[in-house]
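Me: I hope this is not a bother. Any chance you could explain this protein sequence and its structure tokens? It all follows right here:
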Amino acid sequence: MSSNPRSRWANAQEDEAVEAERKRQKEERRQRKAAKARKAEEEEEARRRKHSLGSTEDRPTKRQRRTPEPDLPPAKPLRFEVEGWNKSRSVEHYDKLNDIEEGTYGWVARATELATGKVVALKRLKLEAGDRSGLPVTGLREIQILRDCKHRNIVSMDEVVVGDNVSRLDNSIFLVLEFVEHDLKGILDDMPEPFLSSEVKQLLLQLTSGVAYLHNHWILHRDLKTSNILLNNRGQLKIADFGMARYVGDPLPNSPPSSSPSGTEAQSFSWAQRPTAVP
């Protein structure tokens, strides 16, 4: 006979299933406890490693000898936002109406844009015959300044167009400018009576507003005269003809005084002299 008799009401299979479930739960609890302990150890190790790395970075490994920086003036930002240039369109998009005038740095005509019918002033840059040096500096300056300046009292430039024969520079570079009906010189020559004092004040206000904008952006016109001051039919004044204009900047520290002007600089210098009273 067996030493451990079973009850006749006992269910051997059910007892074995309960025992197996108890062992499984016990094993799961043991594994969870071990995983929790392992995670805590890893976090502590990471904390010690981070603390050790931070203390190493704070301490310089080797002393470096540095040259003292010179006392330079602070750099100035660009006067205008920098933009890109796109491919120029053909002058054939415009239809010439009539000639306006021929100035020192170019020939100007009235034209209309074929697509929109907008009336514009078409200025062809004047180049010396046989000059192989390309576009003159005066033309480049005028294009750059007109492209950068956005002011109600400065004539605006819509775009730069080129002729069909690009190999011929004397007939290939055109500035598409805002069309303004009159110039101040022509008005003064033809008007029967002088301007009223209120009109003079209004014109001077617009002129000084445009000049102040140029000077605030470090630009000197250097050729302000009545023929370069335009006036539309609504009485709005526009400064034009930037062929002699220049970008300027701060003088270099300890720079020697500049020498006497020559060439175009002497010409612009003569315009800047203080007016003399005539008896």
